[in-house]
C-alpha cells in the first residue's frame, strides 16, 4: 500500500511542477502581449505619420502604452499569487522577485516609449 501512496505523491508533485512551469509560460505570454501593445503604439506613429491633429494619434498610442503597463502589472500579480500557492519539487521556479523586476523594467521601458512618442 505504501508504494501506491508514494506513486500518488510523486504524481501530485509532478503535477505541481507542471503547474509552476505553466504559470511561468503564462507570465511570459502576458509580457509578450504587453510588448505587442507597445509595438502597436509605435506602429501607429509610423502609419499615421503627420496625422492632424497630432494629439489624437498620440492619445490613441498612449492608450496602448497604458494597456501594456496594466498587462505587465496584472501578469506579475497573477503569477506571484499562483506561485505562492505552489511548491516546486523537481522544477526550479523563477523567484517572484525576478518576475517583478522584469515587469518593472518593461513598464519603465514602455513608459519611455510613450514619452518619446509624445515628443515626436
Automatic annotation (TrEMBL):
Compartments reported by the entry: Endomembrane system
Span of domain DUF202: 18-84
Transmembrane segments: 27-48, 54-75, 101-119
InterPro entries hit by this protein: DUF202 (IPR003807)
Presence of the UniProt keyword Transmembrane in the record: yes
Pfam families listed in its UniProt record: DUF202
Assigned keywords, A-Z: Membrane, Transmembrane, Transmembrane helix
Its membrane topology: Multi-pass membrane protein
Name this polypeptide is given: DUF202 domain-containing protein
Species assigned in the record: Sulfitobacter dubius
Organism placement in taxonomy: Bacteria, Pseudomonadati, Pseudomonadota, Alphaproteobacteria, Rhodobacterales
Amino acid at each position: 500500500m505504501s508504494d501506491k501512496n508514494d506513486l500518488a505523491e510523486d504524481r501530485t508533485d509532478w503535477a505541481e511542477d507542471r503547474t509552476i512551469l505553466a504559470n511561468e509560460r503564462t507570465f511570459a505570454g502576458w509580457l509578450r502581449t504587453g510588448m505587442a501593445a507597445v509595438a502597436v503604439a509605435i506602429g501607429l506613429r509610423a502609419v499615421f505619420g503627420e496625422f492632424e491633429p497630432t494629439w489624437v494619434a498620440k492619445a490613441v498610442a498612449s492608450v496602448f502604452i497604458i494597456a501594456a503597463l496594466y498587462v505587465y502589472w496584472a501578469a506579475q500579480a497573477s503569477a506571484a499569487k499562483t506561485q505562492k500557492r505552489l511548491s516546486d519539487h523537481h522544477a526550479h521556479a523563477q523567484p517572484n522577485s525576478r518576475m517583478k523586476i522584469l515587469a518593472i523594467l518593461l513598464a519603465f521601458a514602455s513608459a519611455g516609449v510613450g514619452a518619446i512618442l509624445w515628443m515626436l
